[in-house]
Amino acid sequence: MSTGAHKPLRLVADIGGSNARFGLLRDGAREPVECKTLPTGDFPNFVDAVERFLELSGSPHVTEAAVAIANPVTGDAIKMTNQHWAFSTEQARKHLHLDRLLMLNDFAALAMSLPHLASHELRQLGGGERVELGACALLGPGTGLGVSALLSAGEGRWVPLSGEGGHITVATADDYEAEIIAILRREFGHVSAERVLSGMGLCNLYRAVAQLAGRSPLTLTPAEVTQRGLSGEDADCAEALSLFCSLLGNAAGSLALTIGSRGGVYIGGGIVPRLGEYFHQSKFRARFEAKGRMSEYLIPIPAYVIHADNPALIGAAIALDAP
Predict the structure, then answer these.
(1) pLDDT in tens, 69-92
(2) Signal peptide position in this chain (predicted)?
(3) Does 16 carry a binding-site annotation?
(4) Is 301 marked as a binding-site residue?
């Protein structure tokens, strides 16, 4: 019997509220190839998006798939928080003729990739050296706010934490921030971290800043708020972007204390990497460390902005091979 037989073709995916990223794993590899990104909203359901990717890649059938999705994964039923997709994992598996379909939270998958990221895929913001095998904290603003952590289980094994930390109640650090959140509370009732630390969060902050200043806000997209804030052409957008970085630093510091993340705090998602030098000059790090008596604990902890291509796909591949 030949020992050089090819292993079955497998699929990995990272499904977010805005984009669905796909890749193929060939011959048992963990590095995805033929990666493609499709707009999530262009498809009525998960299965149609997968079938379209397979059609574009010229791969009519895969045997197994691991799918990281921006949603709680607590059973067979999946209903996305920031998108209209709702489906049964088992029915999707049968429809796609898969032997196995593994669903996992997208930030749990991203957390799995952290030990495998190269130094050039991370840009450090403050702190010192990370503690080897120390716990890692992860959060990332995008369409929503993803939060996870990674814990060492010894012998090279890591365990991701899968939760919904993006929906904790947002915390403020001064009276001005409290006034901004009070405006949003009148609109939403509960103001979660995601309500301010996401694409929609940028728009929410902009509206609240303008309203507090007695100005009528424009109808802007997250990209427009970011662009107008970075350029300085709009004072309210600039203030919203500054608040975004400050509140993210506050949330990251709280997560680092909760997890004990001596292995570092990692910032993913689609927004922060695009802010470039602005983010590194922002109040993020100062607010990260501003925890009173526990500031000395946080000062050595490094923060990293992730600049890797499709890291959640690598995490999904690792999860597919995990025991």
Answers:
(1) 988 899 999 998 878 899 999 999
(2) none
(3) yes
(4) no
